[in-house]
Automatic annotation (TrEMBL):
One of its GO terms (molecular function) is NADH dehydrogenase activity. Belongs to the NADH dehydrogenase family. Keywords: FAD, Flavoprotein, NAD, Oxidoreductase. InterPro entries: FAD/NAD-bd_sf, FAD/NAD-binding_dom, NDH-2. Residues 2-315 form the FAD/NAD(P)-binding domain. It comes from Bradyrhizobium guangdongense. SUPFAM superfamilies: FAD/NAD(P)-binding domain (SSF51905). The keyword DNA-binding does not apply. The keyword rRNA-binding does not apply. Gene3D superfamilies: 3.50.50.100. This is NAD(P)/FAD-dependent oxidoreductase.
Amino acid sequence: MRLVIIGAGFAGMYAALSAARLRDIKGVSPDELEIALVAPEPTLVVRPRLYEPKPETMTAPLLDVLNAVDVVYVQGSAETVDTKSRMVQVATAKGTRKTLSYDRLVVATGSRLFRPNIPGLAEYGFSVDSLEDAVALDKHLHGLADRPAASGRDTVVVAGGGFTGIEAATEMPPRLRAILGKGAKPRVIIVERNPAIAPDMGEGPRPVIEEALRKVGVETRVGVGVASLDKSGVTLSNGDQIETETVIWAAGIRAAPLTQQIPAERDNFGRLLVDPCLRVPKVSGVFATGDAARAACDDDGNYALMSCQHATRMGAFAGNNAAAELLGVPTKPYHQKAYVTCLDLGEAGALFTRGWERTVEMVGEVAKKTKQEINGVWIYPPKPERAAALASADPEQVTKL
């Protein structure tokens, strides 16, 4: 029997560990149940940290962890999925292709930044969506020091006032001062189409966020969007123009394109609709998890967000359940009633909220310490020791906050 997992993000990593954990508990050998993880590199990109300086360091190796729990790593990109014949075609880095059959499949392909067809966005926009994007932005920022000191050089426009946009924007003033010199006076502007900043955070946390933006000197333009970009700046939807050489696009994500190959229902974000055990209904043998799945967290109408907090726990349930079906044991319905947010606010500290109503629990430096613990410790892979790695993937315990 073979269980194939596509993706080495938070969901894919924990799907592999959790499936291996159940296999170990049931005393089944890797020869009887092969668990294979397909990804271009055996590396976890710590995506929640890509807004920080030195993005090239925001990765963690996975090969030793996978080897420790007898998960087979298959290097390459899954190009096609045939759910009728239960086959995955993988393109390797050498230009060859290999085909993997599966008895169960876990789609953990993550998400991609949504880039609308705005004039100039592809040519002049940056992002912190992927490691490559974040490294390109960092290289661009360091290159600003070699350019003439003009208003556009020292101005950064962040398109999108949600979680990612706020973290990228509040981190930008100290990054620019470090690059341009202490005398630099960087200008950072968030542009948000909604009438208020942080539209999804609600009324409770918003005053804290707005005060933090004022404290670190980040301006906001709400109720307008970016209409076009060129090499000298952006034009907003109301006709205003802002001179800038740096535009960071942070306005929404969608499920990765491979999910389109699964013949099933999807939501507006491209996520596959799944049942409580994260199966894709009417597609035999296929599970979806993380940013590739729309899953109910509870019975109150809350659905998992496209975040590592939900992806880690969803991955553990998906891997467990895919293995459970093959091993003939009961599956476990995914649930995740606990929900927190921890928003980095740069030199103003951070904001920590609990619950779907986002009750503010910590602000400032106290919340910043928690954010640093989350970013620097909690979200990293377990140590490559068999017992510890398997124990980390108990679906009932992952991200139990």
